[in-house]
Design a protein that fits this description.
The chain is mainly beta. The chain has one domain: Exo-inulinase, domain 1 (Jelly Rolls), CATH 2.60.120.560. Helices cover 7% and strands 52% of the residues. The chain is built from one helix and 15 strands. Strands 1, 3, 4, 6, 11, 12, 13 and 15 form an eight-stranded antiparallel β-sheet that branches. 36% of the residues are buried. The N terminus is likely disordered.
Amino acid sequence: MRTSLQHLLLATVLLIAGPGAGFGLEPSTHVWTFDTDPLNTLPSHFVLGTLFDGRPAGDWRVLETDQAKSPPHVLGQLMAKGAEHAYKTVLSNGTTASDLALQVSLLPIDGKADMGGGLIWRATDDRNYYLARANPLEQNIRIYRVVKGVRQMLKNFNQIIDIRQWHTLRVIARGCQAQVFFDDKQVFDVCDRAFSTGQIGLWTKSDAVTYFDDLKLQIER
């Protein structure tokens, strides 16, 4: 009798409060496959960053390639030169998030000083953000806090990264906690309070040429 009454009271509370009460609101999901974006352009939902000397932060363009993770298009960073601290960035246009799940597939194409790339989240601008990146030349994954254009490494994880195949980076951020996964394996679980909300984006460095595909963002409400 008591159990039935408890169930009835719970159902009444949920009915009054509306869908999702007690369970969190439905998340907002954004997916960018780049397959419908015009070739040889930066998609309209992204904004190009600037380098430390004020020049555009790379050559980001939609490409058609048989190497695409999900054909026919990828978003590529194609500028194959750059100084050690030349961070090539694009940020989402008008999409901000605090608690989120963010994922992208990346394919290292070229680079002698640097290779690979990463995910940006909670960016206040193109010089202040969190970054998780994978580098096949160094065979490691790192998570950084970037403040005024200067990287501050939070953690390093040594990892064999095959340059002949696509890899997946995923970040889950809730409050100060950030969990980072590489090819579905968790590599980091850190707490940092420098940034609480902001834009998401993509990142390469120096002379790294990288393809990105299937960028997915789930914002927790």
